[in-house]
Structures are given as structure tokens and as C-alpha cells.
């Protein structure tokens, strides 16, 4: 007979403790023990508690391999205990063996709801080919089968990445649901914004805004310094151009080496901005011209709001970077992909209302492109694919599971909620945006046909767009620092567990994970360049860096500023109620306001963007890993180095921001969430 000390750590979250009874079975090389109750007088497993239990094994089980955890309601609760299951969040178990052997830590970090059994392994990460004992191999297979039975794929809309097969957040397993605190805060924020606008009589008003001044009424319900700055500067050409660099959609601008044939800008048109002594060809050769092309919007399906058809444009915008430290400025805007007498090229020298209306059409295109593609597709649907494949194909003991699981937190909850309340028929996108769910769907399908792996890898994306040296591009500057820090961290972890390229090729679980992402997320499109297998450590490092960056920094950059840039609606209108102008000299203030979204649609969208911009508590900034899945010294040292690197990056960003009229904070590491959770 041998005596063990078992230490159990319960999570600190609301309702993490349990009244249920817990027992453990110790599995070793010579057999396994019977269930050993962990029982004190009174209540065990309170939230935040670490408790010691002494257990006696009736026989020697040999070297400890696994820990089976059993949880069930006490007999005193009778039928009620089964009808109203009690949940428990277990952080970890620890075994103290006889004769002073090293402590064995068994990470858990899972909810166990109702009557439940769970098999845990000692915390050392293991790749599949390094697990030689048949008990370990069987445990890996059984764990993955159980998770594949729990989490299934479905097609939400044809041509979109596949997603979790659940209808509502009520159906979700506790391990992927919002915490009680986060869920409560989320709905309280929504109720507060909803009530404020209803009290002002705006939420149900279907008509036009009476004036630009009246729009300030919605602007006042929540204020941020960035939103105030947008309100004060939205008409300025320099601010209009700067949003392609540091606004909500900083991913589309590219260097222009030659003018597209369907954008016939002439020297005479742009001479007032370029000034004397130069021309278009000279500036093209110098590399000072940039293009933003919303051509993917051409001919896209549009919506009907309040019984009125809505309109969309597919503009092209030419921009000029002044020599030295001058600002980026717009040179010309064409509101369609087809030049001609009904598609004039608008210029800064035009009548002020013509020029403002043309810029506003570009901003509406930015809204549609950003919300459907940059935000929904790239920063929500793809992270859901990474999350679901991780849960289905990587066991808890796999080093990539331990590395990636913090970057999947709450992603399945927020995306399931989006399919309930945001992108479902008759919900916000469908009732209040210019494209509606039909246009969003068509846009995502088009983008999926064009998507390329290099678009997902920031260094390649920056290089392909030719924007390595454009000044004042803080999304690029901060993003590249974050990418580099993540890449170094990932490389250290990969090198700990994969000694060679062959070890990558031989990891069948890793290859299944990559293959499932390719088939379910990228719909097996070879043209995408997304790998369906990984052959080298270098390729694995890039791939995992891409996954973590997409789930954290990329989402923060294109999500956290939604309210800041949309609170003053003319800066980023969600729809347009009149068609794009086909001639110059017709625009007036009355027509401008009549083109903008109706009052109720404006309110609907701004409430949604307020909610989607603000993490409702229970945050975990990038590099924060309170759940200690890695127990070995080497990965823990890499985590500490990663955190130190991020802190250094943050200090540099904050110092730079002190000198900016509009600080760029979205990629400051403390502001970046580990995962897509809102």
C-alpha cells in the first residue's frame, strides 16, 4: 500500500466551485487504482481554493501514467443533482509521490459539468511520435474522438469557410462559452446603448437626418478621444487619406507603378496637388503614388432598408505621398470601374460638395469591404476555423495545443452569437447595411476565390503591396514588431519539440490539423497557396505565427476602432440611399444628407459597433497565459521572454504616441486580446 498526496486547484471565476463529489483513479504501468474519493468534512472545491488530500493505493500501480478524474453529484442531492447539473472549473491536479519523488503536475483548465469523467496527463508536452507507451497512444486517440464527437463542422453559407455546427450560444459546451462576468457585461453594455438612443427617440425613426448638426445627438451617447478627433477632422483630405494607413481598413492601399487603364487620370487633373515641375509619370517612377481599389464591390448585390433600395459603388482612389514628411493626400476618385461620361473623375479642386460626396462614397465602400472581408472573413471566420481544427485534431498534451489554446478563447462563442444576432436574416447586417446579408455573402464568396496565403502573412502582405517605406503607417510599423515577437516565440517553442524537418513531417496530428484547416476553412482551394501539409520547421513557424497573429493582433487592429471611426456616421456610412453621382456640379448639402443612411439604420449599426469595439471584461492581453498548460522550464522561459519583448514594444509605441495628434493604440500589446473574443 502506498500513500499519495493529491493537491487540487479550483479556478477563481464566478461559479467555478462545486458541491459535487470528486474522485481520482491513478493509472500506472502495472495497472490502475480503484476510484479514490477526495473528501474532507464540509465543502471542498470552492472557487480559488487549493486543497490537499491524502489517498492510499491498495496496490502498486508502477510508474504513474494518467489520472482519471470522476465528478458526480452527492447522493444527498438525489434526482435534483442530475436534473440541475453543477459545474466545476478545475485548474490542475498535483501528485506528491512517496519517497520524495518529483511532484507530478496534471494541467486541466476545463469545466466539468454534471456527472463527468476526464483523463489527464502529466504536463510535459508530447508530440505524437514521442509517445511510445500504448496507454498514451490510446489516450490521445480517445481524447480526439471524444472532441470530434462533440464539435462538428457545418456549412453556414455556401462558399464561406465552414464553422461550428451549433445554432445558439445556449447550446455551447461550457469550455467554449463566455464566462458569467463577460456575458453579463456584454448584455449590460448593449442595453445601456439601446436605452440611450431609444430615449432620444432615434432608434425607431425611419426618416432622414434633418442636418449634420442633428447627427451629433447620436455621437454624444458614448465618447472616445479618437471619435472626437474624427468628428473634428473628417472633411480634411489628409485625414481621409490617413485612414487608409491607420484607420479601420489598413490592408488595401498599395503602391501604384502604373495607372490602371480603367482609371484615366491626366496630368492636368492632378497638377494643382502635385505642383509645378512634375507629372504623373515622374511620380509613378518615383514611387510616390498609391492606389486603393474597391473593385471587388463592382456589381455587388444591394439591400432594401425601410422599403427603399440602397446603393453601392466600386471606387478607385489615387493618392500622393508628398516628398519628405508631408501628408498622404487624395489626388483623384472615380466611383466605378468603368470610365466614361457617366463616371467622372472627382478632384480636390471640384466644388466642395462634389468632392465631399465622392470621398463619402469611398468611405462607404471602406465600410462594406471592412465589415464583410477584413473584419468578418479574415478576423472572425478564419480564426474560428483555426479554433475548431485545434479542438478536433490536437490533444491537450500536444505542444501546439498548449501554444494555441489561449488564442482560441471565446472565439466560438462570439461567432455563434454573431450568427444569431448580427449576420442572420433580419438581424443588424440584413436590416441596416447597404449590402445586407446577401451582399455580404456574395462579397465573401468573391474574396474566397481570390484569397492567397501571402495575404495572411503580414511581412509578405506589406511587401506585395509595396508599402514598406510609406511614412506614418503605424499599422505596418506596430504590426511588424508584433509579428516578429510572435515569430521568435513560436520558433523557440517549435525548436524545443521538433528537432528536425522530419519530425514535423512525422507528426500525424499536426498534419491532420493543417489538412483540416485547408479543407474546412479554405475549401481545399489549391490556388490559395494555403498549405495542406507542412514539411519543414520553418514552414511550421510561419504557419503558427500566422494563426496567432490573425487571432490576436490582426483582429485588434481591425476591430477595436470600429466605434471610434463610425461614431460620426458620415465618416464611415453603412449604406447610401441615393445612387452615385454621374456628373459634377449637382451636389448640395440637402442631397448629401439624403444620400446618407436613415436614422434607425445609423443607430442600429452604431450600437453594434459600440459592442464589438469594447471587450466586456474578463480580458487576457497578448502574451498573458494564466492557464499554465506548459509545465517544463524551457517553454516557460520562452513565455517570459515573449512577455518581456511585448513590454518593450509597448513602451516604444506609447512613447511615439505622445507626439501624435491621433495616437495609434490598437496594436499596443496591452490593448491586444489573446484571441477573437468580441
UniProtKB/TrEMBL annotation:
Gene3D superfamilies: 3.10.450.60, Lipoxygenase-1, Domain 5, PLAT/LH2 domain. The record marks 111 as: Essential for stabilizing binding to COTL1. It is found in: Cytoplasm. GO terms for cellular component: cytoplasm. Ca(2+) 2 binds at residue 39. SUPFAM superfamilies: Lipase/lipooxygenase domain (PLAT/LH2 domain) (SSF49723), Lipoxigenase (SSF48484). One of its GO terms (molecular function) is iron ion binding. Pfam families: Lipoxygenase, PLAT. Keywords: Calcium, Cytoplasm, Dioxygenase, Iron, Lipid metabolism, Metal-binding, Oxidoreductase. This is Arachidonate 15-lipoxygenase type B. The lineage of its organism: Eukaryota, Metazoa, Chordata, Craniata, Vertebrata. The gene is ALOX15B.
Amino acid at each position: 500500500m502506498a500513500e499519495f498526496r493529491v493537491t487540487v486547484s479550483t479556478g477563481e471565476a464566478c461559479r467555478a466551485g462545486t458541491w459535487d463529489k470528486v474522485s481520482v483513479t491513478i493509472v500506472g504501468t502495472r495497472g490502475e487504482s480503484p476510484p479514490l474519493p477526495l473528501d474532507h468534512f464540509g465543502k471542498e472545491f470552492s472557487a480559488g481554493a487549493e486543497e490537499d488530500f491524502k489517498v492510499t493505493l491498495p496496490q502498486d500501480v508502477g510508474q504513474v501514467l494518467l489520472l482519471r478524474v470522476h465528478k458526480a453529484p452527492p447522493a444527498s442531492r438525489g434526482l435534483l443533482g442530475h436534473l440541475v447539473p453543477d459545474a466545476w472549473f478545475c485548474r490542475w491536479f498535483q501528485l506528491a509521490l512517496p519517497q520524495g519523488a518529483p511532484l507530478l503536475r496534471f494541467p486541466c483548465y476545463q469545466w466539468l459539468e454534471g456527472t463527468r469523467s476526464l483523463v489527464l496527463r502529466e504536463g510535459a508536452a508530447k508530440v505524437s511520435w514521442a509517445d511510445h507507451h500504448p496507454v498514451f497512444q490510446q489516450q490521445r486517440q480517445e481524447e480526439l474522438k471524444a472532441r470530434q464527437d462533440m464539435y462538428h463542422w457545418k456549412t453556414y453559407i455556401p462558399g464561406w469557410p465552414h464553422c461550428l455546427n451549433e445554432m445558439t450560444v445556449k447550446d455551447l459546451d461550457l469550455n467554449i462559452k463566455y464566462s458569467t462576468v463577460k456575458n453579463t457585461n456584454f448584455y449590460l453594455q448593449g442595453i445601456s446603448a439601446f436605452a440611450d438612443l431609444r430615449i432620444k427617440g432615434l432608434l425607431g425613426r425611419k426618416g432622414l437626418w434633418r442636418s449634420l448638426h442633428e447627427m451629433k445627438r447620436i455621437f454624444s451617447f458614448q465618447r472616445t478621444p479618437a471619435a472626437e478627433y474624427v468628428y473634428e477632422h473628417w472633411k480634411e483630405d489628409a485625414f481621409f487619406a490617413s485612414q487608409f494607413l491607420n484607420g479601420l481598413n489598413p490592408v488595401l492601399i498599395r503602391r501604384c507603378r502604373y495607372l490602371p487603364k480603367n482609371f484615366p487620370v491626366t496630368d492636368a487633373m492632378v497638377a494643382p496637388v502635385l505642383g509645378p515641375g512634375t507629372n504623373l509619370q515622374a511620380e509613378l517612377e518615383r514611387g510616390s503614388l498609391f492606389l486603393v481599389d474597391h473593385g471587388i464591390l463592382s456589381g455587388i448585390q444591394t439591400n432594401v432598408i425601410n422599403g427603399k433600395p440602397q446603393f453601392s459603388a466600386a471606387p478607385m482612389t489615387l493618392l500622393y505621398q508628398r516628398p519628405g514628411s508631408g501628408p498622404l493626400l487624395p489626388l483623384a476618385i472615380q466611383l466605378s470601374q468603368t470610365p466614361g461620361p457617366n463616371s467622372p473623375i472627382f478632384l480636390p479642386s471640384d466644388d466642395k460638395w462634389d468632392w465631399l460626396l465622392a470621398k463619402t462614397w469611398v468611405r462607404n465602400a471602406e465600410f462594406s469591404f471592412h465589415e464583410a472581408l477584413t473584419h468578418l472573413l479574415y478576423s472572425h471566420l478564419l480564426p474560428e476555423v483555426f479554433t475548431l481544427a485545434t479542438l478536433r485534431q490536437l490533444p491537450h498534451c500536444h505542444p501546439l495545443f498548449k501554444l494555441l489554446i489561449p488564442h482560441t478563447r471565446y472565439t466560438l462563442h462570439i461567432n455563434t452569437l454573431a450568427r444569431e444576432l448580427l449576420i442572420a436574416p433580419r438581424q443588424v447586417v440584413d436590416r441596416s447595411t447597404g449590402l445586407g446579408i446577401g451582399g455580404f455573402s456574395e462579397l465573401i464568396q468573391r474574396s474566397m476565390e481570390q484569397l492567397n496565403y501571402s495575404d495572411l502573412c503580414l511581412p509578405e502582405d506589406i511587401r506585395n503591396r509595396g508599402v514598406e517605406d510609406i511614412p506614418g503607417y503605424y499599422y505596418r510599423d506596430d504590426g511588424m514588431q508584433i509579428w516578429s515577437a510572435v515569430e521568435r516565440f513560436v520558433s523557440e517553442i517549435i525548436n524545443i519539440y521538433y528537432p528536425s524537418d522530419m519530425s514535423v513531417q512525422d507528426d500525424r496530428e499536426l498534419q491532420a490539423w493543417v489538412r483540416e484547416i485547408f479543407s474546412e476553412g479554405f475549401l481545399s482551394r489549391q490556388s490559395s497557396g494555403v498549405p495542406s501539409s507542412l514539411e519543414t520547421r520553418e514552414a511550421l513557424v510561419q504557419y503558427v505565427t500566422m494563426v496567432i497573429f490573425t487571432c490576436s493582433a490582426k483582429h485588434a487592429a481591425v476591430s477595436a476602432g470600429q466605434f471610434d471611426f463610425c461614431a460620426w456616421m458620415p465618416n464611415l456610412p453603412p449604406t447610401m440611399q441615393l445612387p452615385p453621382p454621374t456628373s459634377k456640379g449637382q451636389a448640395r448639402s440637402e442631397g448629401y444628407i439624403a444620400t446618407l443612411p436613415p436614422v434607425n439604420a445609423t443607430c442600429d449599426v452604431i450600437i453594434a459597433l459600440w459592442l464589438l469595439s469594447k471587450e466586456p471584461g474578463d480580458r487576457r492581453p497578448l502574451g498573458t497565459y494564466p492557464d499554465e498548460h506548459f509545465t517544463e522550464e524551457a517553454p516557460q522561459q520562452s513565455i517570459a521572454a515573449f512577455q518581456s519583448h511585448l513590454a518593450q514594444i509597448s513602451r516604444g509605441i506609447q512613447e511615439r504616441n505622445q507626439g501624435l495628434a491621433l495616437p495609434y493604440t490598437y496594436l499596443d500589446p496591452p490593448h491586444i486580446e489573446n484571441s477573437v473574443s468580441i
